[in-house]
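Appendix C: a fully annotated inverse folding record. The material below is reproduced so that readers can follow the format used throughout the book. The structure is listed first as tokens, followed by the designed sequence.
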């Protein structure tokens, strides 16, 4: 009888500390959710900022092309004097944006009519069978290529194809070549200044085919790596205009388990991913949580030992 009563008293003791344990669990869970919400909000801001930066860079290629295509003087010299047309294009590029590597004007067969590039390297290039070139002619709207490697310079680039419309028909196509290496450097400079030193965000830019254009603060992805995210929901959902939350997901491209978001670059089908490493996000929380549990369990064991010791000393009278 004494033994049963002592066991009951021990059970009562354990039950009495149960609310304290539940409270500890609740605090840790609340801390986790607060930290997670803060990180997601921060990554949404970074992703949208990077998305706007990418959108502006792509739009500059379209804008310069439209300015050239609507200039009546240029179209006149294009038909009469190739050298003068080339000089006109070079001035247009030099006076506008650094992101544009070169500009080519092509006929409907994909042959170059005028260019800012080295003629000896570009003379025999034809773009007739390129999807973005054919799309610009078919839709009479600007089309953007996926990321490519320029055969002449070896740089990673994107082509912005804008049709020249005359009498409601496509007369030629202007292709602005955007230097994606310049975009990567510019984006890294921006986020180096804005990033909090406590948490390092990684920006991944995906083109309209899901290929990784670049990862900030890392070398350009190798050919066998650039399509690792193409079939994932973070690309598919974002490409269709949705903001996709990345919850403790392993990304093979950067070989990390991360938390973050992916957002669309409007109208172009490109996607920006902003993530932070899970281990880095919750490192301080896990450390403090471990210390709390060590102290709590040690205290409970010590208190339980004392309780058991005094129970053995107590003589229960009936």
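Designed amino acids, in order:
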């Amino acid at each position: 009888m004494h033994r049963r009563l002592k066991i009951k008293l021990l059970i009562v003791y354990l039950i009495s500390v149960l609310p304290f344990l539940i409270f500890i669990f609740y605090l840790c869970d609340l801390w986790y959710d607060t930290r997670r919400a803060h990180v997601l909000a921060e990554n949404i801001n970074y992703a949208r900022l990077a998305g706007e930066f990418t959108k502006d860079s792509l739009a500059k290629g379209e804008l310069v092309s439209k300015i050239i295509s609507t200039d009546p003087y240029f179209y006149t010299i294009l038909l009469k004097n190739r050298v003068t047309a080339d000089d006109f294009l070079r001035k247009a590029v030099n006076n506008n944006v650094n992101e544009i590597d070169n500009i080519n004007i092509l006929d409907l067969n994909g042959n170059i009519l005028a260019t800012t590039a080295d003629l000896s390297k570009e003379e025999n290039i034809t773009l007739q069978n390129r999807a973005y070139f054919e799309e610009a002619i078919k839709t009479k709207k600007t089309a953007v290529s996926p990321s490519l490697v320029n055969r002449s310079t070896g740089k990673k680039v994107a082509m912005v194809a804008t049709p020249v419309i005359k009498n409601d028909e496509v007369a030629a196509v202007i292709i602005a070549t955007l230097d994606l290496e310049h975009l990567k450097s510019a984006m890294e400079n921006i986020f180096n200044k804005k990033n909090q030193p406590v948490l390092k965000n990684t920006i991944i830019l995906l083109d309209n085919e899901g290929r990784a254009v670049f990862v900030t603060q890392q070398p350009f992805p190798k050919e066998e790596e650039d399509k690792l995210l193409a079939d994932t929901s973070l690309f598919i959902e974002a490409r269709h205009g949705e903001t996709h939350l990345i919850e403790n997901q392993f990304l093979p491209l950067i070989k990390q388990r991360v938390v973050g978001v992916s957002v669309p670059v409007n109208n172009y089908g490109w996607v920006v991913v902003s993530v932070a490493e899970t281990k880095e996000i919750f490192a301080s929380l896990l450390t403090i949580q471990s210390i709390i549990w060590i102290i709590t369990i040690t205290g409970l064991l010590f208190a339980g030992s004392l309780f058991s010791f005094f129970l053995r000393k107590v003589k229960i009278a009936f």
